[in-house]
């Protein structure tokens, strides 16, 4: 099997580094050190730290989309069950991380919009894609009578994403699953109910 390229090593490690330390807290030295590559490799593969962050967000989004493919987009399940499965999968990952890191998209959304138009615009695109994925599942549930239909699916999806990100932010502060559990109880008792 071929060895991963240095660029790929930087990206793989960079997802973890930016997730754990944040954009401002992870300099090129930390990024390359965590990847185990010479510092000069960074500029060979990335125009800037902001361009690197776009690549990292894309990789993280690919990972999220893979989870969504297995859960939210699994048409063999009822829509409400798909939503439960998605939040179960993410909650499992959050627990393994000790309730410390939340969502990289949410973390960067809090950190970078005032400092980088490039990253702000990219985050808008990613949040739009995430919202669309929730909206698809909600529409399917509304059509099947499993999810309340008196609310617009796009509005519900935007609300779910914003509330989920907020719950993860609070989870990080508390280092506790309690905000996630509260989010899920309220979501499934009110918003996602027939």
Automatic annotation (TrEMBL):
SUPFAM superfamilies: Homeodomain-like, Tetracyclin repressor-like, C-terminal domain. Residues 27-46 bind DNA. Residues 4-64 form the HTH tetR-type domain. PROSITE patterns: HTH_TETR_2 (PS50977). It comes from the Bacteria. Pfam families: TetR_C_13 (PF16925), TetR_N (PF00440). Keywords: DNA-binding, Transcription, Transcription regulation. InterPro entries: Homeodomain-like_sf, HTH_TetR, Tet_transcr_reg_TetR-rel_C_sf, TetR_C. GO terms for molecular function: DNA binding. This is TetR family transcriptional regulator. The lineage of its organism: Bacteria, Pseudomonadati, Pseudomonadota, Alphaproteobacteria, Acetobacterales.
